[in-house]
Design goal:
alpha+beta
């Protein structure tokens, strides 16, 4: 879900399908030195001089027939840095956290 046709803004939010624990697990696999955790609903990571704060908020279940998928609102907030640095960091996270599908 990269920003292919435009710049990566300093802050934005996404709705993702995951529990807080699943999100934390996937984020730690993508970025092992992440700070924070699902219990605090907040994470922080650093890539050189670029900082990224991530907050998560449960958003209920999405139902597709009998299938129930947990939803999270994920808020991304970058610290001072350049747009290319934001793009590089976000692309790395998106690639590492990408789930199945086609």
């Amino acid at each position: 879900m990269a920003f292919i046709n435009g710049p990566v803004p300093e802050s934005f939010e996404r709705r993702v399908t995951a529990t807080p624990r699943e999100f934390e697990r996937d984020l730690r696999q993508a970025w092992p030195q992440v700070q924070g955790g699902a219990d605090a609903s907040a994470f922080g990571l650093q890539d050189g001089t670029q900082h990224l704060a991530i907050e998560i908020e449960p958003a209920g279940l999405r139902r597709l027939g009998l299938l129930e998928l947990p939803q999270l609102i994920v808020r991304y907030r970058f610290g001072a840095g350049t747009e290319p640095a934001r793009r590089t960091l976000l692309e790395r996270l998106d690639r590492a956290m990408q789930k199945g599908g086609g």
